[in-house]
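tmp note - Acetyltransferase
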Amino acid sequence: MDMHKTIIKTEKQKMIDGDLYLAFGKELESERQYAKEVLFDYNNLHPSKVDERDNIIKKLFGGVGKEFYIEPPFRCDYGYNIFWGEGSYANYNLTVLDCAPVKIGKNVLFGPNVNIFTAGHPIDVEMRTSGLEYAIAISIEDNVWVGGNSTINPGVSIGENTVIASGSVVTKDIPSNVVAGGNPCRIIREINEDDKIRYFKDRYIK
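out:
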């Protein structure tokens, strides 16, 4: 056996492994097209067809909890890289660019117009215009609340119980049990016992 034999990766395998890859090959293009067609059906079902919508997501995603809810319209690149936890909910217009795994814990809440982007493009102009891309996994742990119009960038991890204020751009990891917000998103304060009795914005913006 030739121990020095070169292993040739497909563009899909490069994408999943976090290497630079070209997104416009036949395999990846066909998978994105499939997801678009599936989500067209999902987003255009009658509002009463909850079970049918749930079954579409169960077949499209890499994993999903027994109970969940995603308000249409919803969009993603592939679907199979999304792992959606039990009891997690997304409001209207969630977009997930799932070129790398996106792991969402239990009881996570997403406000309207949230973006989750694992995909990135090189800074160097020659590399970028050649069509090369990369993707880095995102992890959102249990009980997180992400406010509306927030964007979560490649490689970010958000710890359990944390609240991300609306309109935030999350570029770095955020630990557990804090309120964070802004562009770029920063820790505002820790969540504490006072939050059990004083829950409105005058508490979490200080």
